[in-house]
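A common beginner's mistake is to predict each chain separately and then try to dock the pieces by hand. The better habit, illustrated here, is to supply every component at once so that their relative placement is modeled jointly.
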Amino acid sequence: MRPSGRAPDQMRAITIEPNFTRHAEGSVLIGFGETKVLVTASIEERVPPFLRGKGEGWVTAEYGMLPRATHTRSSREAAKGKQSGRTQEIQRLIGRSLRAVTDLKALGERQITLDCDVIQADGGTRTASISGAWVALRLAINALLRDGKLTTDPLTQKVAAVSCGIYEGTPVLDLDYPEDSSAHADGNFVMLQNGTFAEVQATAEGATYDEEGLLRLLRLARMGCAEIFAAQDRAVAGAAQ
Amino acid sequence: MRPSGRAPDQMRAITIEPNFTRHAEGSVLIGFGETKVLVTASIEERVPPFLRGKGEGWVTAEYGMLPRATHTRSSREAAKGKQSGRTQEIQRLIGRSLRAVTDLKALGERQITLDCDVIQADGGTRTASISGAWVALRLAINALLRDGKLTTDPLTQKVAAVSCGIYEGTPVLDLDYPEDSSAHADGNFVMLQNGTFAEVQATAEGATYDEEGLLRLLRLARMGCAEIFAAQDRAVAGAAQ
Amino acid sequence: MRPSGRAPDQMRAITIEPNFTRHAEGSVLIGFGETKVLVTASIEERVPPFLRGKGEGWVTAEYGMLPRATHTRSSREAAKGKQSGRTQEIQRLIGRSLRAVTDLKALGERQITLDCDVIQADGGTRTASISGAWVALRLAINALLRDGKLTTDPLTQKVAAVSCGIYEGTPVLDLDYPEDSSAHADGNFVMLQNGTFAEVQATAEGATYDEEGLLRLLRLARMGCAEIFAAQDRAVAGAAQ
Amino acid sequence: MRPSGRAPDQMRAITIEPNFTRHAEGSVLIGFGETKVLVTASIEERVPPFLRGKGEGWVTAEYGMLPRATHTRSSREAAKGKQSGRTQEIQRLIGRSLRAVTDLKALGERQITLDCDVIQADGGTRTASISGAWVALRLAINALLRDGKLTTDPLTQKVAAVSCGIYEGTPVLDLDYPEDSSAHADGNFVMLQNGTFAEVQATAEGATYDEEGLLRLLRLARMGCAEIFAAQDRAVAGAAQ
Amino acid sequence: MRPSGRAPDQMRAITIEPNFTRHAEGSVLIGFGETKVLVTASIEERVPPFLRGKGEGWVTAEYGMLPRATHTRSSREAAKGKQSGRTQEIQRLIGRSLRAVTDLKALGERQITLDCDVIQADGGTRTASISGAWVALRLAINALLRDGKLTTDPLTQKVAAVSCGIYEGTPVLDLDYPEDSSAHADGNFVMLQNGTFAEVQATAEGATYDEEGLLRLLRLARMGCAEIFAAQDRAVAGAAQ
Amino acid sequence: MRPSGRAPDQMRAITIEPNFTRHAEGSVLIGFGETKVLVTASIEERVPPFLRGKGEGWVTAEYGMLPRATHTRSSREAAKGKQSGRTQEIQRLIGRSLRAVTDLKALGERQITLDCDVIQADGGTRTASISGAWVALRLAINALLRDGKLTTDPLTQKVAAVSCGIYEGTPVLDLDYPEDSSAHADGNFVMLQNGTFAEVQATAEGATYDEEGLLRLLRLARMGCAEIFAAQDRAVAGAAQ
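With all components supplied together, the output reads:
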């Protein structure tokens, strides 16, 4: 029995509010249950030094957590003067995931930065970030297409992410914080709409897992991502109205 | 004529949504028009080193702006590894303003941190932060009183803040971003409900101002703060239901 | 009765020693009583990135305090690896105050940096810094005029600053350290020779103040600045000999 | 055809030289072909703050790369003043992998730090680090057992790691640098001797991969780790002589 | 012929103004010609962690240069966020030199910090710092003896320092900036009153030097230090009046 | 009697293994007894900003110590976020020493960086670094000559370094760690093959030393460097085969 009463293969409610803020070229507030992440997509007509003059664009991400997004206040990274290893690991993962569905040559020499800021945390902040970032990126690219700055769509397909883990011996989908903090294994799965993986990261937290365990997590992830893809479609459609 | 069409003594719409997040002891999303700040109040049962063993508490503030709260993206302070002078100046002002209405001895040996994170910026983020922080602090202290951790209320009265400035020769109340960026003088006024000031900061940005000009700004500020005090009352009442 | 025995409207002795060091284009050692600040003005034939190619100059300031300028030693900011919020707030104030009397277009594409280093602190270090910085800036610009690098004087008038506060219920001028550390309200007033203000910053430290209180501080400031303007004139005249 | 001429399921030569340095409680120089990593295990009779007084120990890792371990010199992280996201990600992975085979209660209140410093890089530095760190940890714990500081062995079994990827369409084992830089997918697999996984991290670098592709990589990893386990045994046996 | 017209064995004018500032337990403004350094000695009744509980004291130094002490402005180390290698090297040298004449056991569990801040630089700032620091330390210890906090004098003798170098083929004493920047060899010599050395640092800057060259520099240093010892005596005597 | 049983004028075994790593243009593992330093020479076809366009090259050094090179683990400088004063002092010394034997004009507009990383420390790491760095630099320059990128050899002669000190009253050559930590005086001597000095740094650690003492250390250093020069020759000859 899960603390939330959910079935093992049951996602939390997925909410995606497009255009949550007004300055960014794309923005959403995404919720996986009580986990809430604000994602903005910012377009800049420049690329990082290593890409200058190569006719290619770049998609990158930054991640942050407001100090009191969590149960107890954690110190502000800007005040400490550096980003933690966890923060850097997460933002690298988000960036790679979005680049997996972007044709960087088709994007042209511009950079899109996805800022993922966790307003409230209850497990799964990195997977909500990736799933929301796709919508923000989609909206920003739609603006470029609408304005005639792009004529070919550089977004090749949808990407979504979800966490799965083994909680009290049972593989479960979309771990919330109480599950996450006591799961024996915990994985983050980044999937494309065509059923392939951009990233699998599965970590044993106590007991290790075998190949069969990993496969069961993969299948749960597939179910969860299908739901997220549908929610992404609804959000993009809603934003267009 | 103001860019927004407002009268010189007209505030923007004030919106205060209490309990915007669920982990903090107090939280609000405050809006002064399109400026939106999320403020959380976090109680910790410890005080900074300089107060240890003195039987007194502390109220402090931190301020941040999400990278794309602004028209163009600014870099993340956590990534740059330090907070700007502007950020530090603002968070020191917020902390002083709230301490002006808190009896630190009555608070006991605990610290309350007000985290003010700007979700969307359109001028007046520091004054919205102070005004919202009072509500978050009020809610957090109400929780301490309700739980019996405090028997005397350490909050002595309300505090609010508003900006005023001289825009195209006319003193105006509650500057938005287009006004702020071209005003000749720009002041932030922190007032208590009893009509006294906790802080006056008035800066000439082009033409300097005389005593009469300052007095006209003070009177506008008084009008604006009266509206904010009323909105604070409504928010606290709403949170109690 | 003030700890120093001064009358409420009495400044400390103002001493300004021009050309205190020899490498800077302008330099002074300014004293407000026992507060001693060394100010140097350095001219560089370049401007910060945001001004490049705009045909305008820049005036900026940096502030520091020697570790044992104070009663007890404080740690060296260079060793701690960052400047405090207080330091940044002060140097931003000094820079703004000097820019209020400089025609940046007339200055041309060059930068003048005012370094204000406190040798000995006894209250009022930021106001002594501003008042001394004007003399250093005047001397540096005189050198540019003398050398034919400038033909029009970009300094539009004099600027000075003084602190005033409410000490044991009485408004007093030019607070020294014993007064500063126990005043109920404490303000810094930056005035131009024409009687207008470039900056007013008045902070309640315990009891808040009302409009009448603020006006009384403004009037004291006006008296203090008149004395400082005279001392600045004498110093500039002395340097010319 | 692999650039090195190896068969798809062929590891590079594994060399493990125990006791490479003399001060550390355990040390090895491990080579996976031309990749050479020096790993030392340092025992300290203290634990990090979050574990104090809990009767448990801690195993952690730090990772570094000498500036000229690579084809072109990269800047020294100590000189830049911070560790890259990549470095932090790798050292977190190494630490988790070793903790997966350590009974921290049995270790008692002491910390063992595995320092993994890459002397020469040719792909697979993190997997060589994990595989070598196990030997260094084994040697350090053997010393504690020999000295009577421990009576129960806290190391529950062996752990090893290897990278696999899809190179020119073919799944291959133990990628070297030329393969790593052009592989379509790249995974790091951390396995225990009992056949279970402590960590799977598989990233698409260009084309995404499907479940079948992931399973083929898992099977190659299993073959590679079997070879590493044997090399670890030989190294521990050699050190004992 | 030296640029200043001095004889090869001629020091610049040595000026030592004791009690230059009033808060420090000891302070001097020392001048070697146009090089001016403010040195303060601060006593704290605590020792660094590595000495706690050992019944010994510590003497340490910090060094800084005001941004415009030099011909062209250099950036402020506090603003850059770190001290240069040169700064650290110099402050380590000053600390060692003073410890060479202090009986740390006799000092008791307290720390004396010598802050050496260069007001104006014209070569020889580190040797002026050491020579002035001895006077500041002497004054601070005299205060401890006078107040009865010490009954035995922990200062065992005098220490002074001077630079010597080979300028246009001739060994010269006390290099000023024009000499320093073109000397072929440049040494700093820290001597005790008894004729022994606490430190010799002689660096070839272009042509290397032989043993005979080094000996000639040593002899010049001995002459220079004799003059400095006399000036130190006069300063201490003057301060006592 | 020295702890190691060596005669006062006896060096430890000098071992120099050329081409220890394969990516660097020059590399050696140098040992002075149990002190082992890996030195690599990296050629880059660019110079630091202060030399751009001047037709000159640059030789510089960086120094690091692996965390467990020492008896007890010290923290990693990359993790602490800054290099210690000791590290910076040493790397500045190494750079100066190598530049003393390099004709920077003949080198052309390129930079050679000597990375000296201490694998195991037992006293004398800086002198072993300098002595090994010369071999790495020689090998790198030989490669430039062989490839026709240089036609004139910019290395003017050999440089070596050794430490000497006064241990229990006796001047001894090449201090190991037990001697170093209790010597009364400790010097580092950097010599050229022609018998001149590039650098002498002699520090009293307890008792100061007189001129005669210094001369005896100089003579020991001369004997030690003669041995190192011979070992350098053998290493370069060995690398050529």
